[in-house]
Structure to design on (304 residues):
């Protein structure tokens, strides 16, 4: 009985060991097969996906027209837009077959624009909608632009004011002595003075009283003028002779005439000739006047 039980246990143990050995071999082979598929993928060409009728490789079908009517009052026809048909099955298979770094199907479907290099290129200027501008950005009128642009041109055409210089000599009598009106009139007429504008006397280019004014003579004291109708009642202690540069003729010659007239009047009435600062006129002061005239002429030549 014990020997039979021992034999049964031995047989059972042998069967268990055999089963474990067979199971181990099967497990090892299975693991080797899975490892081989993992590191050596099957590169055999897969069967091309079955194309559905009317769809291309990317799953894009023919274009269909979809009409949509707007709910406007006039009942006008709605806008029409086209949408491509897409086969979900082929699109899904195409997406699975793409590698990770490949672009999506939408980028592949996007068509490149075609350029016609044969025909002449037509340039179209973009249209500007002025209604979209702000109030202060509204387009300016060409007429106003012309007016604004013409203003600087008008101002440039105006000649610039030429510089001027006034040379003054005085004839002053001592206190207590006056020049009577009739005596003054009789002394001025031989010197070529003529009564004229601003109620003063003028020495013209022509000694007879014609032409432009070379220099003038006025009253040194108020009111500064002479009333020819009341010349008998007028008396003054001083006379003022002045000339303006630029003037007609030769400036140095005009100043020489004015200087000589001042000296004759001073001798006639017993007075002195003074300069523009009301100081006694000396030879040095006369030279200063001459230098001033020459400098003025030089500046005129420089500035045109």
């Amino acid at each position: 009985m014990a020997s039979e039980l021992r034999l049964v246990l031995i047989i059972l143990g042998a069967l268990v060991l055999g089963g474990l050995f067979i199971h181990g071999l099967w497990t090892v082979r299975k693991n080797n097969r899975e490892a081989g598929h993992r590191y050596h993928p099957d590169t055999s060409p897969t069967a091309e996906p079955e194309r559905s009728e009317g769809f291309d490789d990317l799953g894009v079908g023919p274009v269909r027209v979809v009409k949509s009517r707007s709910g406007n009052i006039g009942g006008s026809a709605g806008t029409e837009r086209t949408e491509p048909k897409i086969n979900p099955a082929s699109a899904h298979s195409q997406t699975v077959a793409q590698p990770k770094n490949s672009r999506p199907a939408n980028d592949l479907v996007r068509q490149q624009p075609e350029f016609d290099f044969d025909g002449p290129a037509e340039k179209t200027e973009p249209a500007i909608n002025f209604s979209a501008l702000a109030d202060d950005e509204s387009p300016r009128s060409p007429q106003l632009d012309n007016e604004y642009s013409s203003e600087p041109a008008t101002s440039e055409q105006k000649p610039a004011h030429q510089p001027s210089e006034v040379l003054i000599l005085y004839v002053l009598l001592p206190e207590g002595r006056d020049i009577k009106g009739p005596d003054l009139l009789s002394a001025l007429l031989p010197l070529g003075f003529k009564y004229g504008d601003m109620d003063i006397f003028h020495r013209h280019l022509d000694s007879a009283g014609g032409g432009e004014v070379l220099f003038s003579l006025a009253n040194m004291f108020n009111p500064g003028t002479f009333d020819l109708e009341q010349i008998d009642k007028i008396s003054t202690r001083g006379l003022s002779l002045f000339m303006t540069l630029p003037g007609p003729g030769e400036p140095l010659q005009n100043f020489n005439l004015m200087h000589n007239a001042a000296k004759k009047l001073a001798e006639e009435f017993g007075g002195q000739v003074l300069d523009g600062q009301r100081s006694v006129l000396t030879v040095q002061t006369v030279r200063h006047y001459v230098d001033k005239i020459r400098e003025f002429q030089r500046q005129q030549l420089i500035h045109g």
